[in-house]
């Protein structure tokens, strides 16, 4: 019987390790063929002779490969292999071949690939791809809607209340009001006067949330999550949401915010970047500066005038708007961005960082609920 640990190393190292580590079971040999079909394309590995041989790209079609990995690997591994196929090796027929699209399990990696390649698709393939987009967006919406509800459920007026309910117990105010009754010898605080707060939502002044989203190719994950976030914020009491996509041009997609699938199918990824132009456009949408959150989602690589960008952000901050610069808005929140430009925006008062969609919802809820 083949040692499972040696078999794993054999799968990692490829046929070059056959003599040292021994053969493979039939199932492992099938896994090896599937891995070699994909990773055998890597030019660096070929130069180093780390993996060679196997079935190779020529003996398996994409459909055969997809059927094979679905049968041979757990779901998490399948998603990783599909992501590498479309993002690392640009095997476009994973999302442009109708037979493949009919088999794939929708996941975020394939959604990103569809958005990058939809311009290559004929109408029939685009129809199938749209079903994939709808499925992934629905999954993201369900998760995001839960996070938004949780964030906004806390946006309550914390006024004193005569109604004594345990869930409305105001811990901080109670402690402050009863500090005189602290007994050091007992290490106990005696509460003479408990305090409670109201959980009825107060009247909320109208807030604007203006999402300015960079649609350059590297920001595709943030574009997806911005569309889903905007859809979840849409219609919340006291919040008016805008969504603006930009490269060198600016496109106001606010009218599509309630339909993130349609919105994403209209996004045109790629091109240059004029962040200053987008911020200038966003500034024109502001109605009440002190009730406005401007969220700039970009990698901060400015193709236009950096001085103009800094000036536009500074003006927004000085008039009282909350400016949030996000180098990433996705589940990883692990961006690659121009740190110099980001620092210059931070120097004029913008908050700069990276967030998950849930963290952004909490940020909005915190400000709206004040």
From TrEMBL:
Domain of life assignment: Bacteria
Domain VWFA: 206-365
UniProt cross-references to Pfam families, sorted A to Z: VWA_CoxE (PF05762)
Protein name in the entry: VWA domain containing CoxE-like protein
Species for this entry: Micromonospora auratinigra
């Amino acid at each position: 019987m083949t040692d499972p640990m040696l078999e794993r190393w054999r799968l990692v190292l490829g046929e070059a390790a056959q003599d040292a580590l021994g053969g493979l079971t039939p199932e492992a040999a099938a896994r090896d063929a599937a891995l070699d079909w994909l990773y055998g394309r890597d030019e660096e590995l070929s130069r180093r002779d780390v993996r060679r041989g196997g079935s190779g790209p020529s003996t398996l079609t994409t459909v055969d490969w997809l059927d094979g990995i679905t049968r041979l690997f757990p779901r998490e591994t399948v998603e990783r292999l599909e992501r590498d196929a479309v993002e690392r090796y640009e095997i476009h027929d994973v999302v442009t071949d109708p037979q493949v699209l009919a088999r794939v399990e929708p996941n975020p990696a394939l959604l990103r690939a569809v958005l990058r390649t939809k311009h290559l698709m004929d109408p029939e393939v685009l129809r199938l791809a749209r079903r994939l987009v709808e499925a992934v967006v629905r999954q993201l919406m369900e998760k995001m809607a839960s996070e938004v509800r949780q964030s906004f459920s806390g946006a309550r007026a914390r006024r004193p209340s005569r109604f004594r309910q345990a869930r409305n117990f105001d811990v901080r105010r109670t402690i402050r009001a009863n500090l005189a009754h602290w007994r050091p010898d007992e290490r106990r605080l005696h509460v003479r006067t408990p305090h409670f707060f109201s959980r009825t939502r107060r009247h909320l002044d109208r807030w604007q949330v203006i999402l300015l989203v960079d649609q350059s190719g590297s920001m595709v994950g943030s574009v997806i999550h911005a569309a889903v976030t905007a859809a979840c914020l849409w219609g919340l009491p006291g919040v008016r949401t805008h969504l603006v996509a930009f490269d060198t041009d600016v496109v106001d997609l606010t009218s599509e915010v309630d339909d993130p699938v349609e919105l994403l199918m209209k996004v045109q990824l790629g091109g240059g970047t004029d962040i200053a132009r987008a911020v200038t456009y966003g500034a024109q949408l502001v109605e009440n500066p002190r009730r406005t959150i401007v969220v700039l989602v970009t990698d901060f690589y400015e193709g236009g005038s950096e001085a103009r960008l800094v000036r536009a952000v500074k003006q927004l901050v000085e008039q009282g708007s909350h400016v949030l610069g996000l180098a990433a808005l996705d589940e990883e929140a692990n961006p690659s961005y121009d740190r110099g430009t980001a620092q210059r925006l931070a120097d004029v008062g913008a908050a700069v960082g990276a967030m998950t969609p849930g963290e952004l919802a909490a940020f909005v809820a915190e400000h709206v609920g004040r």
